[in-house]
Amino acid sequence: AQSVTQPDIHITVSEGASLELRCNYSYGATPYLFWYVQSPGQGLQLLLKYFSGDTLVQGIKGFEAEFKRSQSSFNLRKPSVHWSDAAEYFCAVGRNSGGGADGLTFGKGTHLIIQP
Amino acid sequence: NAGVTQTPKFRILKIGQSMTLQCTQDMNHNYMYWYRQDPGMGLKLIYYSVGAGITDKGEVPNGYNVSRSTTEDFPLRLELAAPSQTSVYFCASSYKGLTEAFFGQGTRLTVV
C-alpha cells in the first residue's frame, strides 16, 4: 500500500532564511504527488503538484518541490520564508489510481514555526 | 464564489447520538471526499464519490455513512457517535482526481 512519510514533526526557521521540508513516499507505480498547506483553523490549500515531466515544479507563494525517483522523495523548498508561511504542511500521494480520483494518502504533516 | 461549504463548524455530541455533517460545493465537481484529521496523524479518507449516486469506502469508513443524491451535496452521517469519532472533518471536491482538490473549512466534532 502507498504511504507518505514526513520525518520532521516541527521545523523552526528564521524569517528570511531558506526552507526545506522533507517528504518520502512509497508507491508501486509512477506517483502523483501533492503538497498542501493548512493555516490555523482553515482548510487545506494546494501549493503544488507533480504528475510527470519536469521534476522541479513551481507552486504558489514562491514554493517549489523536486521529485527524485531514486530517493522516493518530493521535498518542498522556499528560498526565503516570511512570517505568513507559518502553518502546517502536508505531503500527499494519490491513493490507488495515482491521480487521486479515489482520494489522497497524506503524511502526518510538518508544523513550520517562523522566528522573527 | 463559495467553493466548498461545510456546516456546522463546531458540534458537541453525546455518546450514542447521531448527526449529519453537511457538505455542498458550487463548482459542479464530480469528485467529492470526506477526510478526518486527528492531531499528529494527517488526514485519512473516510468515503469518496465520483458522481451522483456513486460512493465508495476510503481508509476509515467504519461508523460512518454517506449518500450522493446530487452533484452538489455529499453529507456524512454518524449514526451512533463514539468518543473515537472526535476529530476535525474536512470535505473536499475536485473536477476530476488529477486536478486540484478544494477543501472546506472543516467541522470540529467532539463526542462526550
Brief summary of the model shown:
The complex is a heterodimer of chains A (116) and B (112). With 116 residues, chain A is mostly beta strands. Chain A has no helices and twelve strands.
Give descriptors for this structure.
heterodimer, A: 116 residues, mainly beta, 4-stranded antiparallel sheet, 50% strand, globular, B: mainly beta, 7-stranded mixed sheet, 0% helix
Mean pLDDT of chain B: 93
Task: Compute the CA-based radius of gyration of chain A.
Answer: 14 Å
Q: What is the general shape of chain A?
A: globular
Largest sheet data of chain A: 6 strands, mixed
- What share of residues of chain B is helical? under 10%
Largest sheet, strands/sense/barrel of chain B: 7 strands, mixed
The largest contact between protein chains, plus residue counts on each side, is: A-B, 26 and 27 residues
Residue runs with pLDDT of under 50 for 5 or more positions of chain A = none
Oligomer: heterodimer
Mean pLDDT of chain A: 91
**H/E order of the elements of chain A?**
EEEEEEEEEEEE
- Number of separate helices of chain B: 0
% residues in beta strands of chain A: over 45%
Helix/strand/pairing class of chain A, anyone? mainly beta
Strand content of chain B: over 45%
Distance between the termini of chain A: 41 Å
Category by helix and strand content of chain B:
mainly beta
Query: Helical segment tally of chain A?
Result: 0
- Radius of gyration over C-alpha positions of chain B, nearest whole angstrom: 13 Å
Q: What string gives the helices and strands of chain B in order?
A: EEEEEEEEEEE
The backbone outline of chain B, from C-alpha atoms, is: globular
